[in-house]
Amino acid sequence: MRPVRALCLVVVAVCAFGTSVPADVVTISDVPSYKWYHGCGPTAAGMIIGYWDAHGYDNLIPGSNSWSTNQQAVKNMIASPGHIRDYVPTPDRTPTGADPYHADNCVADFNHCSRDPNAYGWSTFHWQDDGLEDYAAYRGYTGLNATNWTFWDNTFWPWYKAEIDAERPVELLVDSDNDGLSDHFVTAIGYDNTPGALEYACYNTWDHNVHWYGFKMALKDVSFGIYGGTSFVPIPEPATMMLVAGGVLVLVARSRRRRSASDV
């Protein structure tokens, strides 16, 4: 019995003091990883769309959000055949009367990727929130809230950390070549807040690996320094809202019945 008791004590000690993984390392485990497809902005935002497609908004992508098993549908969500026809490789191709521009129908359209004055594959930071909201609305989800934040002061880290803690991946605009100028979008999925660390985890759109970079402002010689980020906070679907409202009405009715009974 003594060896068993000793083992129990070891288990209790591990539970009490934790494992070797720091408690301040947090990642969102089920964000899908997509590789660059006609623009880093729509690809990075597309991973966020793919994440929410598996979290209650399953009409964002026809079929699953998997790059390996439903890749063409995922690619069409990022940059549709119409987008490629009209904006790749030359932005603002002159359409003919028989071949007009297509109606916006993908993330690359809604965040104005490859659209004049942007060169092929480029999109600007101020369109990223609109791109997420407008694509979601196009797929039937209105009222969703996306917001751009710039990294100018010490409020950016608490905001980013709160988004990850709430299990909401964040799109970040970063400087990928250390020249002090932002030039690339990534999908951030975690952070390391241990003393002396302060890093963020992301998919960088170039492979399917999780990469860690220092959580620093975009400055010369800073690897993957951050200019700003875009949050995306969905609201419940209309059907869910009706269920919630119905539940509230039931609770109110029950409360009134109890109050009436107690008043008699």
What does this structure look like?
This protein is 36% helix and 16% strand. By secondary structure, it is an alpha+beta fold. It has one domain (25-233): Cysteine proteinases (Cathepsin B, Chain A). Strands 1, 2, 3, 4, 5, 6 and 7 form a seven-stranded antiparallel beta sheet that branches. α2 (40-53) crosses α6 (128-138). The longest helix has 26 residues, at 238-263. The radius of gyration is 23 Å and the shape is globular.
Offer a few descriptive terms.
single chain; 264 residues; Cathepsin B, Chain A; 7 strands; disordered C terminus
Concise summary:
This protein has helices at 2-17, 40-53, 71-78, 81-87, 107-110, 128-138, 156-165, 238-263; strands at residues 25-27, 145-150, 170-175, 184-192, 199-203, 211-214, 225-233.
Order of helices and strands: HEHHHHHEHEEEEEH
- Specify the overall morphology: globular
SSE-based structural type: alpha+beta
Using DSSP, what is the number of strands?
A: 7
**CATH superfamily grouping:** Cysteine proteinases
Count of the separate structural domains: 1
Distance between the termini: 63 Å
CATH topology: Cathepsin B, Chain A
Count the DSSP helices: 8
What is the radius of gyration computed over CA atoms, rounded to a whole number of angstroms?
23 Å
Strand content: 15-25%
Largest sheet, described in full? Answer: 7 strands, antiparallel
Mean pLDDT level: 82
Which ranges are low-confidence, i.e. pLDDT below 50, for 5 or more consecutive residues? 1-22, 237-264
- Given this structure, which CATH class is correct? Alpha Beta
Kindly state the percentage of residues in helix: 25-40%
Based on the coordinates given, report the CATH architecture: Alpha-Beta Complex
